Amino acid sequence: MPIKILYIHGYGSTGNSQTVQGLRKFLDEKAIIHAPQFSNDLSSFEKIKQNIEHARKHREEFRPHIVIGSSFGGFITTFLDGSFRIIINPCLRPSERLDTLSPNMSQEDIEKLKEFESSHVSNIDIEDRFFTYGLFGLNDELFSYLSLFEKIYRKDRVYTMPSGHRIDIVNIENHLIPLIWEVKKDQDNFNPEGFNFCGDNGLFDDID
Q1: Which of 7, 50, 47 is closest to 27 using CA atoms?
Q2: Strands across the sheet with 3-8, in order?
Q3: Domains plus CATH for the chain?
Q4: Cβ neighbours, 10 Å, residue 96
Q5: What is the residue-wise DSSP string for 184-198?
Q6: What is the pTM of this model?
Q7: Average pLDDT, the chain
Q8: Which of 112, 3, 111, 14 is nearest to 72 (CA)?
């Protein structure tokens, strides 16, 4: 049976991005990829929340095996609790990137977003930390939240690749595709009743 992948693109991108095209090329008939278009209008806190609800709706209707989100799409993907997911160069704190994401957002909405980010982190449980894999370009020219990912999730869920912020076709083939199959294997072997909670690395206290 083909693997079902829901892909959530980043800010300024589309549902037919280079990453989606690369996934379709290398996975071919082994996967069914659903890559909807999300709004690139992030002018308000409500617009961001609408994208998250949009992603949840697609997840419930499509029922993917794995969700993949890139950059700001990685941030949205972290809200799809209960799903195995890969976040590529995720913008884990978009409130810090508003100079490019949404330079005209009001101060009131900025504060709402900061509170929203903080509340979300405090509600991530051990199971979701196990389900979340981060793929980071070592030459990301925009930002890197690798160290924050390690604090929020798990160090053994960090993967790196020799790329910039936008993953190119070579790194899709050599790093993203193998990671997809690794995640699918972990999913197939996952037993909720025998889940080992000792895998928690207990770093929430260090997050500011």
Answers
A1: 7
A2: 31-34, 3-8, 66-70, 84-88, 132-137, 158-161
A3: 3-206 (3.40.50.1820)
A4: 14
A5: HHHHHH--GGG--GG
A6: 0.93
A7: 93
A8: 14
